[in-house]
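User: Just a sanity check before I run the rest of the batch. Below are the C-alpha cells for the first item. I only need the designed sequence back.
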C-alpha cells in the first residue's frame, strides 16, 4: 500500500485498526566518546543489547531485528513509519547532541587497520532491505583502539549497480576509542557520519574492498546503514529530565519507511564524553 495520504488516515490506522507500536529503549554507554566525532551506540549495552560486529572477518553479515530497537515486527504489504520519537538523558555529554536512528543493513567486520594492501570483502549476503542501494551509506566503526590520522578509500557498487566506484580519500580521526565512527570529525580530511561517495552517486549496494594508505592501527567494521530519523537533545539537567520529542507527519514530514526485518539503533554526535551516560526514550511506529 502507499502509506498515509492525510492526518485522518493516521488516526484511523492507529485508533480503529490498531496499527501502531510503542517500544522503549535504554542504552548505557560503555565507551568514552569525543565531542564532534560520531559514535555507534549499538556498541553499548542495555535495551537493546550490545552489538560488537563479531562474525567472520571481511565477510558480509547482517544483524537480527530482535537484537535492535523493537519497531513492531513485519507489516507487509503495509508500509511502516516513525510516528513519534522521544529521548532524554541526565548525562551532560548528551546535551546539544544529535541522534540519528538508522537501519543497520550489512557490515564487513575485523578489517585490519595496519594492512595497507587492498582488503577484499566477500559478499556472502547482500543487502536484505533497501536492496536498490538508494540512500544507503557506509560508516567505518572501530572495534577497539587505533591510532588514526591516515587516509583510506573504499571501492563499492553504487545504487545503479555500477561496480568499481571509488570514494574520495578520507582521513581517519585520532579519537582512538572503540565504537567511534573513524571517518567522522572536524579534522582536515574528515567527513560527517558517512564515507563520501563518488560524484553523482546516491547510495551503495555493496562494498568490494578498503585500502589504507598507511597503518591506521586497530580493527574496524565497515557498516552499511539507511538513515531513518534524526533528533537532537537540547537540555540535560541532573534534577529534571526534559525529553526531546518529534512527531513525524507534524514536525518533520519524514517519509522514510521502516522495512520488514529492520535492525534499528542510533549513531550519535556527542557534545562530550558519553562514558557511563544513559540514554532513554520511546519509539512509536504506525503503518498502513
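Assistant: Here's the designed sequence for the first item:
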Amino acid at each position: 500500500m502507499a502509506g498515509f495520504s492525510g492526518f485522518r488516515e493516521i488516526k484511523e490506522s492507529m485508533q480503529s485498526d490498531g496499527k501502531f507500536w510503542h517500544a522503549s529503549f535504554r542504552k548505557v554507554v560503555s565507551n568514552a566518546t569525543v565531542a564532534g566525532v560520531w559514535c555507534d551506540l549499538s556498541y553499548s549495552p542495555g535495551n537493546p543489547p550490545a552489538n560488537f560486529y563479531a562474525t567472520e572477518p571481511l565477510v558480509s553479515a547482517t544483524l537480527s531485528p530482535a537484537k535492535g530497537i523493537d519497531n513492531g515486527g513485519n507489516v507487509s504489504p503495509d508500509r511502516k513509519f516513525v510516528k513519534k520519537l522521544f529521548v532524554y538523558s541526565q548525562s551532560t555529554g548528551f546535551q546539544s547532541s544529535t541522534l540519528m536512528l538508522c537501519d543497520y543493513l550489512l557490515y564487513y567486520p575485523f578489517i585490519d587497520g595496519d594492512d595497507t594492501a587492498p582488503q577484499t570483502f566477500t559478499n556472502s549476503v547482500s543487502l536484505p532491505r533497501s536492496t536498490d542501494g538508494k540512500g544507503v551509506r557506509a560508516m567505518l566503526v572501530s572495534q577497539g583502539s587505533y591510532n588514526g590520522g591516515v587516509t583510506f578509500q573504499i571501492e563499492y557498487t553504487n545504487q545503479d549497480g555500477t561496480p568499481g566506484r571509488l570514494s574520495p580519500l578520507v582521513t581517519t580521526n585520532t579519537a582512538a576509542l572503540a565504537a567511534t565512527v573513524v571517518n567522522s570529525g572536524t579534522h582536515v580530511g574528515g567527513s560527517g557520519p558517512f564515507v563520501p561517495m563518488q560524484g553523482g552517486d546516491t547510495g551503495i549496494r555493496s562494498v568490494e574492498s578498503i585500502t589504507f594508505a598507511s597503518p591506521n592501527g586497530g580493527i574496524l567494521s565497515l557498516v552499511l546503514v539507511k538513515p531513518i530519523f534524526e533528533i537532537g537533545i537540547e537540555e540535560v539537567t541532573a534534577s529534571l529530565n526534559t525529553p526531546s520529542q518529534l512527531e513525524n507527519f507534524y514536525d518533520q514530514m519524514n517519509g522514510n519507511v521502516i522495512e520488514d526485518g529492520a535492525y534499528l539503533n542510533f549513531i550519535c554526535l556527542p557534545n562530550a564524553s558519553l562514558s557511563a551516560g544513559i540514554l532513554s526514550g520511546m519509539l512509536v511506529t504506525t503503518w498502513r
